[in-house]
Amino acid sequence: MRLAPAIAPRWLPASAAPRRSGGPVHALPVAAFLLLGLGPAPLPAQQPAADARPDIFLDCEGDLCDPDYFRTEIPWVNWVRQRQDADVHLIMTSEETGGGGRVYRIDLLGTADAGYEDRLVHTAQATDTDRETLDGIAHTIGIGLLRFASESGFGQLVEFVEMGGAEADPAARVVSGTEVEDPWNFWVFSLRGTPRITGEKTRSVRRVNLNASASRVTPDWKSSISIWTVMIRTEIDLPDGDVYLDDFRAYGTDHFLGYSLADHWSVGVQSQVRTHRRLNQEVRAQISPALEYSFFPYEEATRRALTVLYQLGPSYQRYNEETIYAETSEVRWKHLMEAELSQRQPWGNTSLTLSGSSYLHDSELRRLSLSGNAVLRITRGLEIRGDGRIAWVQDQIYLSAKGLTEAEALLNIKERAQSFNYTLGITLAVNFGSIYNNVVNNRMQLGPLSFN
Question: What is the model's pTM?
Answer without folding.
Answer: 0.68
